[in-house]
Specification:
The chain is 14% helix and 33% strand. It has 493 residues and is α+β, with helices and mostly antiparallel strands. The strands form 4 sheets. The protein has a 7-stranded mixed sheet with strand order 1-13-2-3-4-5-6. α6 links the parallel β9 and β10. It comes from Strix occidentalis caurina (northern spotted owl).
Length: 493
């Protein structure tokens, strides 16, 4: 398969470790899907499909290694696809041992047989001297006396594996926050905090929807203080606030970690958006809804970003906004829905000004000047302070400036990908009750704005210069984890 690619300039690999940096790669994969995931197949038939995808991933891994990458991340579901039942996913699963067993499947293939996928991944890592991160399915027998044990007698887990450059299994992670459609998998009993050390940094790993919750994502970044998060995902873009490149780059900035995100490419399901992100902003990213072929990203990252002189300072997210005493009167208040949540909005009726909007305990404040407001571009300032309850339950505090889909205010909050209006300046802040806030700036065409904005220590998200492209949204996306309901455990069938 043809592989398109994006490179960023970096020094020779022989310098990388000496400079405290390394070469990272992620691969956005257009997965070969099963014709019918409702019909059971034999293990041999399952392996035929997986081999088709493995052949594509192999080409990407070899190309990344040729360019000097130390590690490559591939997507969630990248080896067999999605939307299986418990029964139909089973032939694709392997019994994946804990990394503590000290196993190189490529060199010792019979030790935990049958394991054709583990063996092939191990050999790809070993033969190309590169760390390989992949997502696959794990199966574990369970006893009927275990109340969590399914009637079919085994657990099935959505699982990430990591092989080092010798082909050794160094990490295994079972996804804790399953998406609502993942009925084929079990939740692990407890969240797993999986980390491993390398000569080029300290790594943690989780999967897709895990990023929306406290465990294990926040724990790995805050308590374990990993340098880099590895993130296989099958992310469906949900504009205006949760497109892949937008949210993943913001999370990396908000948590102060490197973040290697490998997404699927599937235009029908609006899946695209992979990136290599640093705490200071994106280093390389890819978003293309028109293409169906894979895409390789390769660039350099700091091995230990917290030691960098450019590492972002700690932010008091409510410091500036809480000092604003009087709210300006505005008659343009109305409600609108963003991804099932009812926001309070106020229209930006002038090309320059100051406005505020409050909901519950959150007040959002905006100072702005548009460069030349286009008459068909309607912008609003929005606030949401509440529990999101669709496809997962989690507490949000969000301040956002966004372009409406049309001049009809009823369309404000609906997905939109293009705009015509640039901003000369903006400053957005909010009275957040949480310390976990992720700053997003998204331009027309679902493009990021590296280097064009900054977060001040008093909690203001401000533009550094006039925006280089028209603005889709400017957002402070807060997660108040302490207000989340308890984790929902899956009921076994």
């Amino acid at each position: 398969a043809e592989i398109s690619q994006t490179l960023a300039c970096f020094p020779a690999v022989t310098w990388a470790c000496a400079l405290g940096s390394y070469i990272a790669a992620v691969y956005e994969h257009s997965v070969v899907l099963s014709e019918d995931t409702e019909v059971p197949v034999s293990p041999e038939e399952a392996l035929v499909l997986m081999d088709k995808n493995m052949a594509i991933l192999e080409a990407a891994i070899k190309e990344a290694a040729r360019q000097g990458a130390h590690i490559i991340v591939t997507p969630e579901d990248g080896i067999y696809g999605w939307v299986f039942t418990r029964e139909t996913i089973y032939p694709y699963l392997e019994d994946i041992p804990d990394a503590e067993v000290n196993w190189i499947p490529c060199a010792d293939p019979g030790r935990f047989a049958p394991s054709p996928v583990l063996e092939r991944l191990s050999c790809l890592a070993r033969n190309n001297s590169i760390y390989v991160v992949a997502n696959m399915g794990d199966k574990k027998p369970c006893n009927s006396s275990d109340p969590r044990c399914a009637s079919d007698g085994h657990y099935q887990y959505n699982t990430n594996v990591v092989f080092d450059s010798e082909g050794k299994l160094v990490a295994r992670y079972h996804k804790y926050n399953l998406f609502v459609t993942e009925k084929q998998f079990n939740y692990p009993k407890d969240p797993e905090f999986v980390t491993f050390n390398t000569s080029f940094g300290y790594f943690g790993i989780f999967t897709c929807a895990d990023i929306l919750y406290h465990d294990p994502a926040v724990v790995l970044a805050s308590r374990f203080q990993v340098d880099t998060i590895l993130f296989p995902t099958a992310w469906v873009n949900t504009l205006p606030l949760l497109s892949a490149v937008q949210f993943h780059s913001a999370w990396a900035m908000g948590m102060g970690v490197n973040f290697l995100s490998a997404n699927m490419c599937n235009s029908t399901l609006e899946m695209t958006g992979s990136g290599i992100y640093a705490p200071e902003g994106p280093r390389a990213y890819y978003y293309n809804r028109e293409m169906e072929n894979g895409h390789l990203l390769v660039t350099e990252l700091s091995s230990h970003p917290r030691l960098s002189p450019d590492y972002p300072a700690a932010v008091n997210w409510k410091s500036y906004a809480s000092r604003i005493e009087q709210l300006p009167s505005n008659n343009h208040y109305f409600s609108g829905v963003i991804y099932h949540d009812t926001f309070s909005f106020t229209e930006l009726t002038e090309p320059e000004g100051y406005c505020s909007i409050c909901q519950q305990d959150l007040c959002c404040h905006l100072s702005y000047k548009m460069e030349e407001k286009q008459k068909d571009d309607i912008y609003v300032l929005g606030a949401f302070d509440g529990l999101h309850v669709v496809e997962g339950e989690y507490y949000l505090q969000i301040c956002t400036v966004l372009k409406c889909k049309s001049t009809d205010l009823d369309t404000c909050g609906q997905p939109v990908e293009t705009a015509q209006t640039k901003f000369e300046r903006f400053s957005l802040s909010g009275t957040f009750g949480t310390n976990y806030v992720f700053p997003e700036v998204l331009y027309s065409g679902v493009q990021l704005a590296p280097g064009e904005f900054e977060v001040l220590t008093d909690g203001r998200l401000i533009s550094r210069t006039s925006t280089s492209k028209p603005v889709l949204s400017v957002t402070l996306f807060g997660r108040w984890y302490e207000k989340d309901p308890p984790h929902t455990q899956q009921v076994s069938p």
